[in-house]
């Protein structure tokens, strides 16, 4: 294996991802089953929050993926803009709906968690608001991909939208901090903090997060494969019409 | 570049340019606000700064697709792109023309609409200042959105979907300046941040718009 750029070759990418995918999917399934079952049934109830605390095993990992999914799209877009590898553009396209779904899951589980804890489904808290804005960015990105017919043009335009959107998403993130004080707690998983979640909750949470990461990778690989094959099919059809 | 600016402004001002549309929209929306939430002037004066900002933003949004779409349809955009002025300059001028013909009139009529919404007396100055500082960013961001969607038929709705999330920071700081002004609180911090956003977008976003336009024109 000489360099990572070999996978810019669609065939090489398909071969390798075909080999990796079953293992990855299995790993994701195992991690998720172990993590969720462990988290839901074998951790104690929190002394103040009761059993509602257990939704954390869906809420935190999905939020993690929602943010890092956008980050992955940003990197893939940059690679497309700089090195013009089609696989990269398609991977960004493939990640968008997954990321959007994760954003919805994070928002929904947050609402379900917030109802008993804060007494409200929704509050205009900075974190909640910036997640909603992130969701809008995902929607715009997906809509732009869907609206443009020419593939390369669409890849270029969405990549630039992703770059500009990233800057504005960050801006919004800090602007909403300024705009309203929060109800949401601070980060619970920093490296060096004493008020992280306790170990009983922490380990299954880590397992769940790993499971969600594997799930995200598997879904993105699968969707990228689909995109590559769909594009090949279109090319074949076009060639047949020409001859 | 000045010739392009004059041309764009003239095109917008003449019949069929839709010059008054944004203004009329702004007026109507502001007239509808009391209908939807009731004529209680205490409540109105409390929400007036935010509502005026939102109305101005939506009125700006309304005319965005005219920035480039007409030139795209009749082919003059291709000519302008091959002209010796850089494309970055062209989109900046287009944004400036949009600001002059859409945003500036909006800013000028806001005090009148402020009366309708019983804005507190100390709020007028800061409302106008915040709009003056913030609307250039709206025009520049809008030009970026227009450049993104110029090749798409009936891209108007998509344009709003793309541009509105980008408007969030400007709206937050702009409305905050206006609100603090109306409540006679110090406005310096949000005003500076709003100015920073405007300067940043005016300086950087034309490059993105030009890049997008090049993709669309090839």
UniProtKB/TrEMBL annotation, chain A:
<dbReference type="InterPro" id="IPR045062">
    <property type="entry name" value="Cyt_c_biogenesis_CcsA/CcmC"/>
</dbReference>
<feature type="transmembrane region" description="Helical">
    <location>
        <begin position="94"/>
        <end position="116"/>
    </location>
</feature>
<comment type="function">
    <text>Required for the export of heme to the periplasm for the biogenesis of c-type cytochromes.</text>
</comment>
<keyword id="KW-1003">Cell membrane</keyword>
<feature type="transmembrane region" description="Helical">
    <location>
        <begin position="200"/>
        <end position="222"/>
    </location>
</feature>
<dbReference type="GO" id="GO:0015232">
    <property type="term" value="F:heme transmembrane transporter activity"/>
</dbReference>
<dbReference type="Pfam" id="PF01578">
    <property type="entry name" value="Cytochrom_C_asm"/>
</dbReference>
<feature type="transmembrane region" description="Helical">
    <location>
        <begin position="128"/>
        <end position="148"/>
    </location>
</feature>
<feature type="domain" description="Cytochrome c assembly protein">
    <location>
        <begin position="19"/>
        <end position="184"/>
    </location>
</feature>
<dbReference type="InterPro" id="IPR002541">
    <property type="entry name" value="Cyt_c_assembly"/>
</dbReference>
<keyword id="KW-0813">Transport</keyword>
<dbReference type="GO" id="GO:0020037">
    <property type="term" value="F:heme binding"/>
</dbReference>
<keyword id="KW-0472">Membrane</keyword>
<feature type="transmembrane region" description="Helical">
    <location>
        <begin position="20"/>
        <end position="43"/>
    </location>
</feature>
<keyword id="KW-1133">Transmembrane helix</keyword>
<feature type="transmembrane region" description="Helical">
    <location>
        <begin position="160"/>
        <end position="180"/>
    </location>
</feature>
<feature type="transmembrane region" description="Helical">
    <location>
        <begin position="55"/>
        <end position="82"/>
    </location>
</feature>
<keyword id="KW-0812">Transmembrane</keyword>
<dbReference type="InterPro" id="IPR003557">
    <property type="entry name" value="Cyt_c_biogenesis_CcmC"/>
</dbReference>
<keyword id="KW-0997">Cell inner membrane</keyword>
<dbReference type="GO" id="GO:0017004">
    <property type="term" value="P:cytochrome complex assembly"/>
</dbReference>
<keyword id="KW-0201">Cytochrome c-type biogenesis</keyword>
From TrEMBL, chain B:
<keyword id="KW-0812">Transmembrane</keyword>
<feature type="transmembrane region" description="Helical">
    <location>
        <begin position="157"/>
        <end position="175"/>
    </location>
</feature>
<keyword id="KW-0472">Membrane</keyword>
<comment type="similarity">
    <text>Belongs to the CcmB/CycW/HelB family.</text>
</comment>
<keyword id="KW-0201">Cytochrome c-type biogenesis</keyword>
<feature type="transmembrane region" description="Helical">
    <location>
        <begin position="123"/>
        <end position="150"/>
    </location>
</feature>
<dbReference type="GO" id="GO:0005886">
    <property type="term" value="C:plasma membrane"/>
</dbReference>
<dbReference type="GO" id="GO:0015232">
    <property type="term" value="F:heme transmembrane transporter activity"/>
</dbReference>
<dbReference type="Pfam" id="PF03379">
    <property type="entry name" value="CcmB"/>
</dbReference>
<feature type="transmembrane region" description="Helical">
    <location>
        <begin position="43"/>
        <end position="64"/>
    </location>
</feature>
<keyword id="KW-0813">Transport</keyword>
<keyword id="KW-0997">Cell inner membrane</keyword>
<dbReference type="InterPro" id="IPR003544">
    <property type="entry name" value="Cyt_c_biogenesis_CcmB"/>
</dbReference>
<comment type="function">
    <text>Required for the export of heme to the periplasm for the biogenesis of c-type cytochromes.</text>
</comment>
<dbReference type="GO" id="GO:1903607">
    <property type="term" value="P:cytochrome c biosynthetic process"/>
</dbReference>
<protein>
    <recommendedName>
        <fullName>Heme exporter protein B</fullName>
    </recommendedName>
</protein>
<keyword id="KW-1003">Cell membrane</keyword>
<feature type="transmembrane region" description="Helical">
    <location>
        <begin position="96"/>
        <end position="117"/>
    </location>
</feature>
<dbReference type="InterPro" id="IPR026031">
    <property type="entry name" value="Cyt_c_CcmB_bac"/>
</dbReference>
<dbReference type="GO" id="GO:0017004">
    <property type="term" value="P:cytochrome complex assembly"/>
</dbReference>
<feature type="transmembrane region" description="Helical">
    <location>
        <begin position="12"/>
        <end position="37"/>
    </location>
</feature>
<feature type="transmembrane region" description="Helical">
    <location>
        <begin position="187"/>
        <end position="213"/>
    </location>
</feature>
């Amino acid at each position: 294996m000489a360099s990572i750029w070999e996978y810019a070759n669609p065939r090489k990418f398909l071969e390798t991802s075909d080999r990796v995918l079953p293992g990855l999917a299995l790993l994701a399934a195992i991690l998720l089953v172990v993590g969720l079952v462990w988290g839901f049934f074998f951790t104690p109830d929190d002394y103040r929050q009761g059993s509602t605390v257990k939704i954390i095993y869906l809420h935190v990992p999905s939020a993690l993926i929602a943010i890092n999914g956008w980050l992955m799209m940003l990197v893939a877009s940059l690679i497309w803009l700089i090195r013009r590898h089609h696989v990269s553009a398609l991977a960004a396209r493939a990640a968008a709906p997954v990321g959007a779904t994760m954003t919805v899951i994070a928002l929904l589980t947050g609402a379900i968690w917030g109802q008993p804890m804060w007494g409200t489904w929704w509050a205009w808290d900075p974190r909640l608001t910036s997640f909603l804005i992130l969701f809008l960015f995902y929607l715009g990105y997906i809509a732009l991909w869907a609206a443009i017919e020419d593939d390369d043009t669409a890849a270029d335009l969405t990549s630039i939208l992703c770059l500009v959107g990233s800057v504005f998403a960050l801006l919004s993130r800090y602007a909403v901090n300024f705009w309203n004080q929060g109800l949401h707690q601070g980060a619970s998983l920093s490296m060096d903090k004493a008020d992280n979640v306790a170990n009983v909750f922490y380990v299954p949470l880590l397992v769940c997060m790993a499971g969600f990461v594997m799930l995200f990778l598997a879904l993105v690989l699968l969707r990228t494969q689909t995109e590559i094959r769909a594009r090949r099919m279109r090319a074949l059809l076009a060639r047949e019409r020409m001859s | 570049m000045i010739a392009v600016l004059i041309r764009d402004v003239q095109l917008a001002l003449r019949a069929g340019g839709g010059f008054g549309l944004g203004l009329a929209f702004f007026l109507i929306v502001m007239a509808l606000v009391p209908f939807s939430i009731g004529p209680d002037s205490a409540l109105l004066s409390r929400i007036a700064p935010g509502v005026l900002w939102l109305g101005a933003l939506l009125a700006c949004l309304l005319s965005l697709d005219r920035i480039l779409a007409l030139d795209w349809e009749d082919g003059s955009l291709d000519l302008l792109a091959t002209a010796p002025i850089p494309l970055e300059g062209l989109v900046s001028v287009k944004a400036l023309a949009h600001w002059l013909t859409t945003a500036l009139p909006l800013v000028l009529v806001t005090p009148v609409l402020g009366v309708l919404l019983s804005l507190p007396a100390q709020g007028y100055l800061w409302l106008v200042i915040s709009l003056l500082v913030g609307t250039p960013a709206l025009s520049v961001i809008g030009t970026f959105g227009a450049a993104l969607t110029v090749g798409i038929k009936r891209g108007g709705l998509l344009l709003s979907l793309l541009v509105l999330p980008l408007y969030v920071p400007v709206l937050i700081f702009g409305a905050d300046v206006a609100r603090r002004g109306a409540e006679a609180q110090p406005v310096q911090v949000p005003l500076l941040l709003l100015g920073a956003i405007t300067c940043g977008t005016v300086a950087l976003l034309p490059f993105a718009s030009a890049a997008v336009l090049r993709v669309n024109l090839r």
